[in-house]
From TrEMBL:
UniProt record, GO biological process: regulation of DNA-templated transcription
Domain Response regulatory positions: 13-127
Annotated protein name in UniProt: Two-component system response regulator RegA
Residue positions, PTM 4-aspartylphosphate: D62
Organism (species): Parvularcula dongshanensis
This protein's GO CC annotations: cytosol; protein-DNA complex
Length: 183
């Protein structure tokens, strides 16, 4: 048993709500390796059903989902289990949503793609204590690239629409999309 597993409470159930199946599955496996008992959900409705049946001790919740937002889920979780710790994940980091997440009872707010180690640190941080900063934070270039990829995906891979929404020239966007992700 690793040192981090001994820090886990007896009930280490962890709801992971994200509409991105590959990310949800990878994070579930990674959290299981760290001693958590993951329960995976794809929609707000499914997560609320799972919470009503057996509220987990921890939750990792995507902010924006097809059928609602993760703040609803954090509210539902705290209504059933006030001592639960929840972390909000988002590809759209801004002050307004961070404040809303904290008001709903989330203990942390992490930008996607979040590393499982960062999620674990946030979930296990003692009350009032901030988790340690990440060992290898994403570079500014990587954050920019991730944001562009997310908007491109949300625009249905339409280069012209993505360029319009990002306020950049279409050819510039095409050059960025043709390159590999920066480290």
């Amino acid at each position: 048993m690793s040192e981090t597993e001994t820090d886990l409470p007896e009930d280490a159930s962890c709801l992971i709500l994200d509409d991105d199946m590959p990310f949800r599955t990878r994070l579930g496996r990674a959290m299981e390796k760290r001693g958590f008992t993951p329960v995976l959900a794809e929609t707000v409705l499914e997560a609320k059903r799972l919470i009503s049946q057996d509220p987990p001790a921890f939750a990792v919740v995507d902010l924006r989902l097809d059928d609602g937002d993760g703040i609803e889920v954090v509210d539902a979780l705290h209504a059933r289990r006030p001592d639960a710790k929840a972390v909000i994940l988002t590809g759209y980091g801004n002050i307004t949503t961070a404040v809303a997440a904290v008001k709903a009872g989330a203990i942390d707010y992490l930008a996607k793609p979040a590393d499982a180690d960062d999620v674990q640190k946030a979930l296990l941080a003692k009350g009032g204590q901030l988790p340690e900063p990440p060992d290898n934070p994403m570079s500014a270039d990587r954050v920019r690239w991730e944001h562009i990829q997310r908007v491109y995906e949300l625009c249905g891979h339409n280069v012209s629409e993505t360029a319009r929404r990002l306020g950049m020239h279409r050819r510039t966007l095409q050059r960025i999309l043709a390159k590999r992700a920066p480290m």
